[in-house]
């Protein structure tokens, strides 16, 4: 099968899924967070090395105070339930985003998860928390400018050099980007990293996104002709 090292997912539709069940939006986020475990295990078993999940965007602060504070508490609930299992499975947790503005207790849980798993070599489970790609690129540009000013960098920066300033510097480019719940937009996610990713938009909401749906996405991916600007000789 065509190599698919890095899958990124925009985990969308928790709120609508909950509403359809007559439950509050937060109930959808809880079920959605449990599904992160299910899909991480499935992805790892399907041979994916990097799974990058969009959990909270820089724009999601616009939501109600109650919803935002619930989402900020979810990492503690999630890692309490599943961290030991992730360690046993050899997963490495990476949290991507501007973490310093998150509540202190949330930051601690996230930094602990990274610290405890930093020597693991299995699945890289990347969770994007207070992440926005425009902000990421802006911060990278600022850091580069600073390095030029301090004589650490020169003006001959190339694409590979610029990538070193991004929050995803340790990961390969995204091969497949999936968005759940039928929306067909990128919502400020991994703009640089998806330059040549294959895109798939599935109707299932995130709580309904099962390993079988992931398998279907990978099957579809395997039929795509990735040309990277070249031509296929057929
Ligand atoms: C995705 O589900 C989770 C987050 C953005 C935090 P939503 O909360 O966006 O659910 P919908 O799109 O409103 O149904
Ligand atoms: C994108 O979903 C962000 C996450 C999944 C964390 P949103 O639900 O926030 O995106 P829009 O507002 O519909 O574009
Ligand atoms: Mg949404």
Question: How would you describe this structure to a colleague?
Answer:
The chain is of the alpha/beta class and 234 residues long. 43% of the residues lie in helices and 15% in strands. It contains seven helices and six strands. The chain has helices spanning 14-20, 25-45, 65-88, 104-117, 133-149, 159-163, 211-222, and strands at 6-10, 50-57, 92-96, 124-131, 176-179, 198-201. Strands 3-4-2-1-5-6 form a six-stranded parallel beta sheet, sandwiched between helices. Helix 1 (14-20) packs across helix 2 and helix 3 packs parallel to helix 4. The longest helix has 24 residues, at 65-88. The chain starts with 5 loop residues before the first strand and ends in a 12-residue tail after the last helix. The mean pLDDT is 97. Bound molecules: 3-methylbut-3-enyl trihydrogen diphosphate (2 copies) and magnesium ion.
What is the fold's blueprint, element by element?
Elements: E1 6-10, H1 14-20, H2 25-45, E2 50-57, H3 65-88, E3 92-96, H4 104-117, E4 124-131, H5 133-149, H6 159-163, E5 176-179, E6 198-201, H7 211-222
Parallel strand pairs: 1-2, 1-5, 2-4, 3-4, 5-6
Give a brief description:
The chain has 234 residues and is of the alpha/beta class. The protein is 43% helix and 15% strand.
Globally, the shape reads globular
N-end to C-end Cα span: 18 Å
Low-confidence stretches: none
Q: Per DSSP, what share of the residues sits in E-state strands of 2 or more residues?
A: 5-15%
Quickly count the helices: 7
Properties at a glance:
single chain, 234 residues, alpha/beta, six-stranded parallel sheet, 6 strands, binds 3-methylbut-3-enyl trihydrogen diphosphate, binds magnesium ion
